[in-house]
Specification:
The protein is mainly α. The protein has 18 helices and no strands.
Length: about 400
């Protein structure tokens, strides 16, 4: 199913929803030092503020995809934004660390609803020839949203992390209302006869490609979450910069990811296969992570490597998410494939900061390389394995 023309204003509105959802990922790293100071937390414990956000997505992402196929992406998009708004409000008012973590789980549910329904909606709003370009824009939602929210770091000393949470709640509520009123209603694909949740998931997992792509999302998101999540702390400890300066430098590193996102469409149009583009990005990731965290690496050089890694790695989410309509068994199962991809992404977000945080606490920053380099190697292997799936790789 395709529309008569690509509805670019609606595509940009859907990308904007992703950006507002990504604000909730980016606000945590810059707020982490302030949360630790207020609640007296060590680094491994505080890392759960970063990781637990991804708990529900890592557990039931593909099931949420089937929810989108039944309720419709147009309905669920503003609902997901609303869930994020309520959860951010609750987190800003949370009197204890445990309640803050519960609110982050709720934010993760809203995030998943947005990040599955928005790309599913983009699929229905675009012509096939322009779909990869649209997904290049969509792939930038995470780094752009994270960078914007991280840029709030200089204001945290007077705004406070709670003020940031409450401000995010107000912005999310306003955007949810706008999407509810203004998003067009594309024609929904027909449901397959006898379709049900387990059958949809089973058909998607058994198809060649979706499971490999979902697994490839794990090492990418684990590395990206660990890099951007701990970069402010690393910069403050290694370079002696202030919290505000570290937040801005981390925002730039997160934003560098947009370069790869936007480059994915033109790169694939030149004839470079999806699997080779992904394998090349993973190679740069593992080589960069071998040096970023080492004590012998000059701090400015380590930061430069971080920019290189996040910029090149931006090819991965666009390549993976743009493949949903290619590898899904049918157009009505695109949301299920997207849910499976986001399940892999969230599993990486869940594991990356916690595992790296525990390793750094036990053995120092250099231990992060021992985790992230093998992750990049695994990603390369998964990307190259796409050759067996055929299609256009």
């Amino acid at each position: 199913m395709s529309p008569d023309r690509t509805q670019w204003p609606a595509v940009l509105m859907a990308v904007g929803a992703g950006v507002f959802a990504a604000f909730q990922v980016g606000k945590a790293p810059v707020a982490l030092p302030f949360i630790r100071a207020e609640m007296g937390l060590d680094l491994p414990t505080a890392a759960w503020v970063l990781s637990i956000f991804a708990l529900m997505g890592a557990s039931v992402g593909s099931a949420m995809g089937t929810l989108v196929t039944r309720i419709g992406s147009r309905r669920l998009l503003p609902m997901g934004l609303g869930v994020l708004a309520v959860a951010s409000l609750a987190g800003g008012l949370a009197p204890s660390f445990s309640l803050l973590l519960i609110s982050r789980v709720a934010e993760g549910i809203g995030f998943m609803l947005v990040t599955i329904s928005a790309p599913a909606l983009i699929t229905l709003l675009t012509l096939p020839a322009q779909r990869q370009m649209a997904f290049g824009l969509w792939g930038a939602f995470m780094p752009f949203g994270m960078a914007v929210s991280m840029a709030a770091a200089p204001g945290l000393p007077w705004l406070g992390w709670r003020g940031l949470w409450l401000a995010m709640a107000a912005l999310l509520a306003a955007y949810a209302l706008w999407v509810h009123r203004s998003m067009p209603r594309p024609q929904r694909p027909p449901q397959s006869p006898g379709s049900h949740l387990l059958a949809d998931i089973g058909a998607t997992v058994k198809a060649p490609g979706p499971l490999l792509l979902a697994l490839a999302f794990i090492p990418y998101s684990a590395t990206y979450a660990a890099l951007t999540g701990f970069l402010p702390t690393l910069l403050m400890e290694r370079m002696g910069v202030s919290a505000g300066e570290a937040g801005l430098m981390a925002a730039l590193a997160a934003a560098a990811n947009i370069i790869g996102n936007l480059a994915s469409g033109p790169l694939l149009r030149t004839g470079v296969s999806r699997r080779r583009a992904m394998a090349g990005a993973f190679l740069v990731m593992l080589l960069g992570c071998a040096g970023i965290f080492q004590s012998w690496m000059p701090p400015l050089a380590a930061y430069g490597l971080c920019l290189l890694v996040t910029g090149t790695a931006g090819l991965l989410p666009s390549c993976i998410l743009g493949a949903a309509s290619v590898y899904a068994p049918s157009i009505n199962l695109v949301p299920v494939a997207l849910g499976l991809f986001m399940q892999g992404s969230n599993l990486g977000q869940l594991l990356g900061p916690v595992v790296v945080g525990a390793a750094v606490a036990a053995w120092g920053w250099g231990a992060a390389s021992a985790i992230l380099v093998p992750a990049g190697l695994a990603g390369m292997g998964l990307a190259l394995s796409l050759r067996r799936a055929g299609k256009e790789t």
